[in-house]
Design goal:
- This protein is α+β, with helices and mostly antiparallel strands.
- The protein is built from 10 helices and 38 strands.
- Among the domains are: about 110 residues, Immunoglobulin-like (Sandwich); about 140 residues, Sandwich (Jelly Rolls), CATH 2.60.120.
- The strands form 8 sheets. It has an 8-stranded parallel beta sheet.
- The radius of gyration is 27 Å and the shape is globular.
- Bound molecules: alpha-D-galactopyranose.
- The site of alpha-D-galactopyranose has 12 residues, from loops.
Length: about 700
């Protein structure tokens, strides 16, 4: 990754990436299409340290990741951050069952103090925001059986541009004030640090907190700048691993990717902190917020609610109070989940749980539904006759012979808790339902779309019935051309179905929602209904002859930073912010500018023959950037360059894509992580 949001001396900066649209997550059971439909790209390598660094504190604090609230993500420094908000949140923690679900800390962020200390060098709470002082809110919060957190910076001033007093040089006095007020948690930021060594700054405050004799959870917030995972375990109970989160899909995703490789460093009393939750703040869809909450829990991250609960929707409460998911986060073994596989936006992350089960996230980073599959063995479970997989958003159990697979909607996460369980027969078999290879439809042309229902379980699925329906009321015709029912589908076998799908002539290109539904029952009579949101892509065949891929419409893209750019390099943020495509000082007028990991799909309608391009790392990154280019014809890898760096001249690619329905241009990170990976498909052309 190239640059993170950083701030060393104050001044507000936020990185905001527009949220993409998302299909609603609504997997009934496990559902999918066969492996051949999966987008094939190379796995993303993760940096994996061999052992965690310094030993944790043995003070018994934060033995599971802290759970609570912090006002920053919802209010920043606004005036509505005040005593009545803090009290209101404490009240809601109790009234809405969040306290019972495990949320405990009510934390104040920046802007609670007056800009200057008093004559004795003491911090002064802002009397307008906190007329009863911090002691007043602490007493109130404690009276509800909750705990209070506070904030300051390991610098001369805090981070907000208004510049409130920081703790540098005042550690012992400030810590004592916090303890006297009844503070239970300190977030210690990094702004205005005067260049003083981070380990020294954070250690001094640790000692000052200790000297008070009050147990205070100590949250180190230096944004991952000095690799705190390597030194902070003996200093605080948690440390930020990233810059600030913002309420967007791109921000959440980039922090997740930074935090995932740090799994070996987390454990009871010493947690990686990829920043507070944005769930409920409105910049992401509910499906994206479920992914955010699922992935933070699988990463054993602190769960600090960042939305104003006084205005939160029922859906927000439902996400934040999901006890099945919270139990993953709060598991006493304290392992952070680690990446089992990651390719083409399909992530499998597995978290070992104290009872021997695994929490398994099948997370779809991409903008279209994809099949994601793994096995009980791959996620670390012992071999067994069968397993029970609980869907932690559906709250339902299924049995599986070992395959864990589903069609996961765009930006969605299927979160399972899987265990080897001799009582598997008490639950219906898991089934995977999907369309093989997706549905690509040309307007006015009837297309055959095959689908599969696969019983992943150990026992039979009975009275199986599968249906597919088209976008409501838009003149689409969707009809089965063969059987869609079976009285028995034994475990490990499939029912194959075929439909014809046609969109009316003149239908605009794009993605359209279809509903694929399967119903069946278990031998015990449990009825299962599984609805899989699938999409039909309406696309037109590319023109015959040779076309520039920089100008042709694509089906979908996934890109490391910012959008894929047509005929310029990738500028990492907004559309159109790139530069002329330049490789080895040669400038190209046409092509695509991407950032690894990237994938650009074109509809080739089985009527094209060849892709050609001059590929390489764009000159704009100086000596940085290491990538590898691949061309796929459906599920066949038809060209790959191997690793290219900024010192390589453009490499010619020529790939035979004869017969492909989909042509996919893939760029991986070259195996060394995503950093300055500006990749150009210069002069990319498709001949049909
Ligand atoms: C920094 C921190 C944020 C927040 C603000 C307050 O940016 O990383 O989490 O505390 O300061 O100013």
């Amino acid at each position: 990754m190239r640059r993170l949001p950083t701030r060393s001396t104050g001044g507000v900066r936020r990185r905001i990436v527009g949220a993409l649209a998302v299909t609603v997550l609504g997997l009934g059971g496990l559902a999918a299409v066969p492996a051949s439909a999966a987008a094939p790209t190379a796995a993303v390598a993760s940096t994996r340290p061999t052992s965690a660094a310094s030993p944790a504190l043995d003070d018994g604090l934060a033995l599971t990741p802290p759970m609570g609230f912090n006002n920053w993500n919802s209010t920043h420094c606004r005036a509505d951050f005040n005593e009545s908000m803090v009290k209101g949140i404490a009240d809601l923690f109790v009234a809405k069952g969040l306290k019972d679900a495990g949320y405990q800390y009510v934390n104040l962020d920046d802007c609670w103090a007056l800009p200057t200390r008093d004559a004795n060098g003491k911090l002064v709470p802002d009397p307008v925001r906190f007329p009863n002082g911090i002691k007043g809110v602490a007493d109130y919060v404690h009276s509800k059986g909750l705990k209070l957190g506070i904030y300051t910076s390991a610098g001369t001033k805090t981070c907000d541009s208004a510049g409130f007093p920081g703790g540098l040089g005042h550690e012992y006095s400030d810590a004592q004030q916090f303890a006297d007020w009844g503070v239970d948690y300190l977030k210690y930021d990094n702004c205005n640090n005067q260049g003083v060594d981070a380990v020294q700054r954070y250690t001094t405050m640790r000692d000052a907190l200790r000297a008070t004799g009050r147990p205070i959870v100590y949250s180190i917030c230096e944004w991952g700048q000095n690799k705190p995972w390597e030194w902070a375990a003996g200093i605080g109970q948690l440390w930020r691993t990233t810059g600030d989160i913002s309420d967007s899909w791109g921000s959440m995703l980039s922090l997740m990717k930074k935090n995932l490789p740090l799994a070996p460093y987390a454990g009871p009393g010493h947690w990686n902190d990829p920043d507070m939750l944005e769930v409920g703040n409105g910049g992401m869809t509910d499906a994206e917020y479920r992914t955010h909450f699922s992935m933070w829990s699988v990463m054993a991250s602190p769960l600090l609610i960042g939305t104003d609960l006084r205005k939160a929707s029922q859906e927000t409460y439902d996400i934040l109070s999901n006890r099945d998911v919270i139990a993953v986060d709060q598991d006493p073994l304290g392992k952070q989940g680690s990446v089992v596989s990651s390719a083409g936006g399909r992530w499998v992350v597995s978290k070992e749980m104290k009872d021997g089960s695994r929490a398994v996230a099948l997370f779809n980073e991409s903008g279209s539904a994809q099949r994601i599959a793994t096995t009980a063995k791959a996620v670390g479970l012992p071999s067994a006759d069968a397993y029970v997989a609980r869907d932690l958003w559906q709250h339902k159990n299924y049995n599986t012979a070992g395959t864990l697979a589903a069609t996961v909607p765009a930006h969605g996460t299927l979160l399972l808790r899987v265990a080897a369980d001799p009582k598997w027969a008490a639950y219906p078999p898991a089934a995977e339902v999907g369309l093989d290879g997706g549905a690509f439809v040309e307007p006015g042309v009837s297309t055959k779309v095959p689908g599969t229902f696969t019983n992943l379980g150990r026992n039979a699925a009975l009275d199986v019935s599968v249906s597919l329906s088209g976008p409501e009321g838009k003149g689409w015709i969707v009809q089965p051309t063969g059987p869609t029912r079976a009285s028995v589908v034994p475990g490990g076998t499939s029912l194959h179905t075929t439909w014809t799908v046609s969109a009316p002539a003149g239908t605009a290109t794009g993605s359209y929602d279809l509903a694929l539904r399967a119903t069946y029952r278990s031998p015990q009579g449990t009825k299962v209904t599984s609805t899989v949101p699938v999409t039909a892509s309406v696309a037109t065949a590319p023109p015959s002859g040779t076309s520039s891929l920089g100008d042709l419409p694509w089906l979908s893209t996934a890109n490391g930073y910012g959008p894929v750019e047509r005929n310029t390099s990738n500028g990492e943020d907004a559309a159109g912010d790139g530069h002329p495509i330049t490789i080895g000082a040669v400038v190209y007028a046409k092509g695509l500018g991407v950032h690894a990991p990237s994938s650009v799909d074109y509809y080739a309608a089985r009527s094209c023959e060849r892709v050609t391009a001059q590929v390489g790392v764009d000159d704009e990154k100086g000596t940085k950037g290491t990538v590898a280019f691949e061309v796929w014809a459906d599920d066949r890898l038809v060209a790959s360059t191997g690793t290219l760096t900024n010192s390589d001249a453009a490499k010619a690619v020529s790939a035979d894509v004869t017969g492909a329905q989909i042509v996919r241009l893939v760029v991986t990170d070259g195996g060394d992580g995503v950093d300055s990976d500006h990749a150009d498909w210069a002069d990319a052309q498709l001949t049909c």
